[in-house]
Amino acid sequence: MRTLLAVVLVFAFGIYMFGCGKKESTEMQEQMSMESLATTPAVEVTPASETGMPQAPAAMPAASEPAVAAKLEPLPPAGPYKPGALDIQTALKNAGYYTGALDGKIGPMTKNAVKEFQKANNLAVDGRVGPKTWEVLKAYLSAPSQRD
């Protein structure tokens, strides 16, 4: 029983010491802002020849002008786009081949509409939206409703 008590006390003391030490070090750190970083003088690096140690990269000079945020462009898709059921139904509806509800479910009405679309566009008629069918169908994704 004494051994167990001693282990628990040592464990609790260790947590207390490490936990408190970490808290003190974070409390002692000073909050830095971008303005204070810009006005902080650059640190001089002692040449490697004088210290006998490998040379560290030089510190970057402080920016004299505020950085201008660059306009970020979205990245293109990583691979071929696989359309969702709702995209397929929307494009078919806009093309005039689908008259059902846009529910995001590929049922018999959607498959028949795909077959009609494929037949009208001289594509292989299989009722599936593969890469070739989607290449033609995606033009109707944002187009207003129409029927050829």
Summary, kept brief:
The chain is mainly alpha-helical. It has helices at residues 2-28, 34-39, 48-51, 85-95, 108-120, 131-137.
Observed structural traits:
148 residues, mainly alpha, Muramoyl-pentapeptide Carboxypeptidase, domain 1
Description:
The chain has a domain at 85-140: PGBD-like superfamily/PGBD (Muramoyl-pentapeptide Carboxypeptidase, domain 1), CATH 1.10.101. The protein contains six helices and no strands. It has helices at residues 2-28, 34-39, 48-51, 85-95, 108-120, 131-137. The longest helix has 27 residues, at 2-28.
The name of the CATH superfamily of one domain reads: PGBD-like superfamily/PGBD
The helix content, as a percent range, equals: 40-55%
Radius of gyration: 33 Å
List the total number of helices: 6
Give the C-level CATH assignment of one domain: Mainly Alpha
Biggest sheet architecture: none
Task: Report how far apart the termini are.
Answer: 89 Å
For this structure, the CATH topology of one domain is Muramoyl-pentapeptide Carboxypeptidase, domain 1
Structural class: mainly alpha
| Sequence stretches where pLDDT stays below 50 over 5 or more residues | none
The best one-word shape is elongated
- Give the CATH architecture of one domain: Orthogonal Bundle
**Residue fraction in strands:** under 5%
Instruction: Tell how many strands the DSSP assignment holds.
Output: 0
The pLDDT mean sits at 76
